[in-house]
């Protein structure tokens, strides 16, 4: 099969979070199974060019219609650890992708509407006719709309779209300017409840809703979150739309790329190990402590890696720092915030705890350090308010860092409480789960985890090894995506 992914991220060249990991990891697994995969991305000025091989101009002067005129683009092509990627570089005064950031601009809607349009124009003009176009999140929600309203009539009538929602909270709420810019035009047609009209604001368009309505199949990134989005509050207003399209909606649990995340071969960690050589992990803990100037006592090391965002339960992350110190544990945090208030809050804590030998707070995005943290940590916390899938608990499991998670979304599909789980035998349990959002709930789970580490080290090690034995690779999810692709292809 020939699959084209259209996305705003692909790790490690463009990675703001888990979306990048998924686009890369799924593409690699599909290619390993003999399918052809190409990835279309924006050419951001701030992407990690050091992760691209053979970058060259593949198409010059791609004319993308925009507001009745056109924007000229060059399309570059290169390999990101074996994946063939096309990078769209528009020449316009808007400087859509030369902002020194991936997201967070006032005109994000227009930037990614343009990207969606340009990606389809590129496919059309280069005669690329994939069996399936797989697009992701609100940034590419317009792709199926444009495909089925415009490009279908210009020679792309056989293409099918699979649309994956990684985060329902960000939906691309726009004004009608995206319609006029992209050539969709007919305002009254799209401002309809069964098309792109926002469920909360009848005078706004919702790009994610467009993705749901027009795609041939929609997935979110875990079965439990699919349920939450459909029946609970986590659809952020799109539950009704999901309900109307439930026949083409499902949850596919993400995987993690076991070549990137592999403690036996990770190029960013000094000591390789697996379940049989688990004691080597302790050397990584020492290396992490040395790198971060932490003390070397006999203490468990608890880590948080992730975006610092309300989604992630930042109030509980903050509480965990002080609870860990109170319980004679060490804490390492690696995170970045887009909200200034959250950023300042954690910067303040960083200054406050700067000289504490048991705590290190690193604000920023650091792929290399994240690997060493997973390898060095005894426990990894994920106290999210909501979590469509969550990759950090799966990476933690793979590195023998026991996850302590809140029981929501994909966390419930992947972590099974050591002490209280009705569905898994004790030897299949792999972490700790709590349910409420208050600090006592977090403490109750951390207390059990730290207690086991101190008082029953052998049992703690067994728990970590049980986690390492889980298979959260892309093997199963890729099989599920392939059957979705086959299904929509023949419809
Ligand atoms: N400061 C930092 N430095 C280095 N690395 C960092 C980092 N902050 C985060 N990362 C890395 O980025 C990834 C984050 O994964 P998450 O599952 O938390 O994704 P996120 O919430 O961004 O995305 C959404 O999409 C993903 C993928 O579908 C879903 O799992 C998730 O639930 C959903 O919210 C991990 O690989 C992590 O190591």
From TrEMBL:
The gene is glgA_1. Synthesizes alpha-1,4-glucan chains using ADP-glucose. Residues 3-243 form the Starch synthase catalytic domain. The keyword S-adenosyl-L-methionine does not apply. Pathway: Glycan biosynthesis; glycogen biosynthesis. It is an enzyme of class 2 (transferase). PANTHER family: GLYCOGEN SYNTHASE 2-RELATED, PTHR46083. InterPro entries: Glyco_trans_1, GS/SS, Starch_synth_cat_dom. It comes from the Bacteria. ADP-alpha-D-glucose binds at residue 15. Residues 297-450 form the Glycosyl transferase family domain. NCBIfam families: glgA, PRK00654.2-1, PRK00654.2-4. Keywords: Glycogen biosynthesis, Glycosyltransferase, Transferase. Belongs to the glycosyltransferase 1 family. Bacterial/plant glycogen synthase subfamily. CDD domains: GT5_Glycogen_synthase_DULL1-like. Pfam families: Glyco_transf_5, Glycos_transf_1. It catalyses: [(1->4)-alpha-D-glucosyl](n) + ADP-alpha-D-glucose = [(1->4)-alpha-D-glucosyl](n+1) + ADP + H(+). This is Glycogen synthase. Its EC number is 2.4.1.21. The keyword Iron does not apply.
